[in-house]
Amino acid sequence: MNMKKQLLLALLIAGSVASFAQEQRVKIESKVIFKPHWFMQVQAGAAHTLGEADFSDLISPAAAINVGYKFAPIFGVRIGASGWQAKGGWVTPQQTYAFNYLQGNADLMVDLSTLFCKFNPNRIFNAYLFGGVGFNHAFSNDKANSLDTNMYQMEYLWKDSKNSIAGRFGLGCDLRLNDRLAINIEGNANALSDKFNSKKAGNCDWQFNALVGLSIKLGKSYTQTAPVYYEAEPVAPQPVQPQSVVEQPTPKEVVAVVEPMKQNVFFALNSARIQDDQLAKINSLVDYLKQYPNAKVDITGYADKGTGTAKINMKLSQARANNVAEALVSKGISTDRITIGAKGDTVQPFASPEEDRACICIAE
């Protein structure tokens, strides 16, 4: 009668475990990879040429158009044309004059947001720094030539045109609208020849620009790998196995049979970090080892053969086994109860590469 009851109890426990253990579909997140691309900037705003007159009297319209190529997540280059109008003046007597200019530019750009916060194509605010050189062609200086210069002698007054080399630097940002468009805001400073505004100052002439416009990506700036799925081994609580009772004539002696436990801990591609969805398996091993103090656990690490080299995969499988062992030790399991091994990609215990990124743990 006792044996029949125990057999019935074992069948009920097996049925409950089978109903609990369901397939879990685990997703490995896709990766975002930078892609080199061309871009264009169209800008308009205001310029200020540093001089003796009041700040507001020396403000003039400005515009720019640039075409660039971002060849790395952090670095890019661009060429462009900027210009429109510049102003000069003096205060005794107060007089101002305007002239026109066109400047060709070549800049090296540094993406500050990616430099400090890593590449993210969906970031809203993206700041950049740039520096470069320009060739400035100033013309239409008729107003300066028509002024009464008896009270103020302009030693560098020019008539038809004036060419000069410019050094430039600035700071800007893009406010993302979508994958192709962003609102562009930029401020830049240009150091020009002392003759640019027709006045002798003994140092370079400075012109500052504040510009607003659009940044347009002319190609896809990133690619995204497809997510990978694999069927993970279900995590189910390991039931306490029913004890088999062997009846002896007299006295009756009970012999307990302890079944070994096996847990497969899976890892992400090229990673030895234990993922959150695998922690329940570690906890099950700890519970088993604490319930049976004489039991020991053997941990063997593996790596899939389809990625990496044999040398890299051996190190990776060893790191995976070490991390599982450290997780058990951190929960109170003695190191003398743990055996660690690594197979690299020499053995592929499962049918798919995703499953072969694993540690097989057998406790008994």
Q: Could you tell me the strand content as a percent range?
A: 35-45%
Number of strands: 18
Q: What Rg do the Cα atoms give?
A: 37 Å
Number of domains: 2
C-alpha end-to-end distance? 30 Å
Report helical residue fraction. Answer: 10-25%
* Succession of helices and strands: HEEEEEEHEHEEEEEEEEHEHEE
Number of helices: 5
Derived structural class? alpha+beta
Which runs of at least 5 residues are low in confidence (pLDDT < 50)? 16-23
Main sheet, how many strands, which sense, barrel? 8 strands, antiparallel, barrel
Please give a quick description of this structure.
With 364 residues, the protein is of the alpha+beta class.
Draw up the topology in text.
Layout (H helix, E strand, L loop, with lengths): L1 H19 L3 E5 L3 E3 L2 E13 L9 E12 L4 E17 L2 E18 H6 L7 E15 L2 H5 L14 E16 L4 E12 L12 E13 L4 E3 L3 E5 L12 E2 L6 E2 L6 E6 L12 H13 L5 E6 L7 H21 L7 E7 L13 E6 L1
Parallel strand pairs: 16-17
Antiparallel strand pairs: 1-12, 2-11, 3-4, 3-10, 4-5, 5-6, 6-7, 7-8, 8-9, 9-10, 13-14, 15-18, 16-18
Structure description:
- This protein has 364 residues and is an alpha+beta fold.
- It folds into two domains: 2-30 and 244-363, 2-Layer Sandwich (60s Ribosomal Protein L30, Chain: A); 34-223, Porin (Beta Barrel), CATH 2.40.160.20.
- It is built from five helices and 18 strands.
- A hairpin with a 2-residue loop joins β5 (75-91) and β6.
- The chain is rod-shaped, with a radius of gyration of 37 Å.
